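Here comes just one.
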Amino acid sequence: MHASVKVSIIMLFMVGLAACITRHYASFTVLEADKPIPITANPQQPGNAQTGYHYLVTGDYLKSGVPYSIFKMGPTKEPENYLGRTGDNAGVPYSFNIINAPNGAKIAAPNCLFCHASVFEGKLVMGLGNSLLDFSMPQDFTMKMGAMAVNILGKPKDKEAAANMLKATNTTAPYLVAASKGVNIADRLTAVLAAHRDPASFMWSDKPLLKIPNEVIPTDVPPWWLLKKKNGMFYSGFGRGNFARFLMAANLLTVTDTAEASEVLTHFDDVMAYLFSLQPPKYPKPINQSLAAQGQKLFETHCSKCHGTYGPNAEYPNLLVPTHIIKTDSTLVMSNFSSPQFVDWFKKSWFRTGDRPADLVPFKGYIAPPLDGIWITAPYLHNGSVPNLETLLNSKLRPTYWERDFDKPTYDYEKVGWQYTVKDKQYLRSTYNTTLKGYGNHGHYFGDKLSDKERKAVIEYLKTL
């Protein structure tokens, strides 16, 4: 098989997998405030964590994909079986599930781990957002090559099983181009998929039914283990009600109708239980306990009001912080108010039906997240614009243009984050350009009031969380 065709098969999935952290646009009650306000408790349905894990890494929540016979012709062999899976799944990357499509054809379907797991220092960390993705290359040609490979080499059942995936990825690909590597574009994918689906039936339309916004708004991928503390999903905290419906929204990529969506939903209380069971990895290097103790006192004085306390008597306040206080790039949160066509789509959609509907409560601000495992979650802020904790707590040090090595990423355990090189302008796709709309690194200036010695102590404490 020609190398370009092999690459096209892999990339066919890479675009679709961003749907695993799909967000939706709606506006039922627009909240504004002069000070941080708490999100009320939002109890979720219990589930079985072990069952949820099994469904996550072997399940058919996407029921269309590349025929397995074609998929394995490409460079798809995983050097290590990180998940310890058996059978066909043992030989493919952790971000794919080998399943039987509804018509019986064996296919390789993407799973949520492409965005929500990452290899760090040679080990797969479940729930760690993948900040090494590259959505900066146009994929139009790649998608067409993937479709051609399936049409030429696939058997009739294979083509049928791949049809929904091919249709969605070829339609969405022209819209899914980020300005730099490392950021996620799930919001953009959400808008395109919604525009091509009837909200009540989820039936596909080849022509967009809604106007698709021009902006491609970047996000970083938050760690899954924080979800059990949060009363609202997403960076703006506006995802309320049934979290399981939001989690299974990746199904929008290939779903046939709402009957299929409802079947997939039956598994996601268990998936939620698994996510709630996740714990952040421990900082692997020595920690100066005396300095960390000093940092804890400073943290509890200056930071805990928004980010909570940690340890045996931990408390997390679930606070929404208005944009005029946090002062971070507001492009992401303001997008919830600039596309009324998506507001109407969500109001009419399957997500709002049944006895446990999803809900959305937009707010002009961002949630102050829990900080469990913060040491491993670089880059920082909701758009991944700040490379390490040192620059997060000292805004004067934040680079306007910076690059990291995506092929051989190196972690700085003292400054806590990715090693990077400062640039004077954007040279490559690997350059993060904070002058672009949505990519700004301003805001969260609360650490600036600390001295260098105090910031060092706080960082040492953050390593312990």
